Amino acid sequence: MNKAEILEKLSDFRENDIPWREGRLWSYVYYLDKETEEIGKLAYMEYLTENGIDATAFSSLQKMENEVIHFCREILRGDEQVVGTLTTGGTESILLAVKTARDRAKAMNPAQTEFEMILPETVHAAFYKAAHYFGVKAITVKVDDDSLKATAALIEPHINKNTILIAASAMSYAYGVVDEIKSIGQIALRHNVLFHVDGCIGAFILATSREGGYEIEDFDFTIPGVTSISMDLHKYAYCPKGASVLLFKNDEIRKFQLFVCNEWTGYTFANTGILSSKTGGPVAAAWAVTNFIGRKKYSKIAVKTLEVAQTIRKKLEAHPDIKMITDPKYSLLSFTTPNLNIYALSDELKSRKWYAGLQFKHRHIPANIHLTVAGHHFNNYEVFITDLFDAIEKVKKENLPLIEMDLSQLKPEDVPAILKNLGVGDELPANLATVNQLLEKLPKEISKELLIGFMQGLYK
Ligand SMILES: Cc1ncc(COP(=O)(O)O)c(C=O)c1O
Predict the structure, then answer these.
(1) Which of 244-258, 386-400, 401-415 has the lowest mean pLDDT?
(2) Can you count the helices (H) and strands (E) in the chain?
(3) Domain check: are 50 and 185 in the same one?
(4) Is residue 234 very low, low, confident or very high in pLDDT (cuts 50, 70, 90)?
(5) Closest atom of ligand 1 to CA, residue 172
(6) Is residue 348 in a domain?
(7) Cis peptide leading into residue 171 (ω within 30°)
(8) 176 CB within 6 A, ligand 1
(9) Domain that holds residue 70
(10) CB 170 less than 6 A from any atom of ligand 1
(11) How many A from CA of 226 to the centre of ligand 1?
């Protein structure tokens, strides 16, 4: 293929993607404007081929990374002791926070063989990935039934001699609330346990909106007991993907994040992150975009985002068929429709080219739809609301019944027949209402198997 054909093909591949620039995607993408996108892309391409493997060969990347870390440290009100690493994303930041806690515990007490971390039920899935990868037992604890916040009282009874880490969110992805960081910090101090605040999605917008005069709850390095914070730049800092920071209170703790290997026969192997070779693009792009936008403009963007989100919230709350899940004060909103088939509503939105993530029922919290409000929604949220209200009327009229079957006792061998009945083969049906209800109702072990089978089918 020649260059023109390749470019045309690349564009064609996008045919079925959700048009995110138009703000039709309510998660995954953070887009501000063309100019910021261009700066990020230029900087990224400028350093595409440089390799983040070795700070001595590419001091440019090391210098930019340090500058970005210092910028983030100031935003999170950390002192000069606070150190950090630019990682490839929120998941890597969380993986490294957990690995650090485990390796520190091992070093402090070589006899310890069991490692536990306390996870409020609303923390991001990346903590479970970390538990799985690093052999740390996840102790899941309930959040408060009403506020859906993690609290010290619900966490403290689970602390024991194996506890290496407590996690909490600022904000939690699913429900958009800030956990009770201050009081959790107190118990972390009392029991001498590390405390990670996952600010992957929330820290940047919370901190910068506070700088813009918005009232927010405390969550940063000024809170005693907080020992590390993750904060993604590829979310509300509008940097290209591949940029998150993991900051530690001091280098005594960060020491256990680093990995060196002198057992092999090649070059000196010393890494801050999980990957070795990696493009310098995200580092240069994060440096460029954060400098291009700057703190003052970031605070304006953050305040505007919260204002837009709260306007959306008010409009949703005024609709008789919509109920918000808890009290989302910031930019992440989730709502349910108590008298309406929300699974069908999610499909109806998709058929109108809106992608708003469906979140399954959890304990007393009904299935709900999640909206991450960001820059690309400033000019289109009213269109979304009109379409959403219209979709609600359509779903009401169709009145598809909810699946009421009890599937909790289903055996794995029954599943293929059920899937066949539902028309699920290698490809998912366009209408996912039934499949989603099934996934929600199946025993977790079976739905995991199903999802793995589905992924196997996707990537052949
Ligand atoms: C609270 C929280 N933590 C962690 C992550 C993981 O971030 P990433 O997708 O960059 O790995 C997310 C992503 O949305 C998140 O919302």
Answers:
(1) 401-415
(2) 15, 13
(3) yes
(4) very high
(5) 1
(6) no
(7) yes
(8) no
(9) 42-289
(10) no
(11) 19
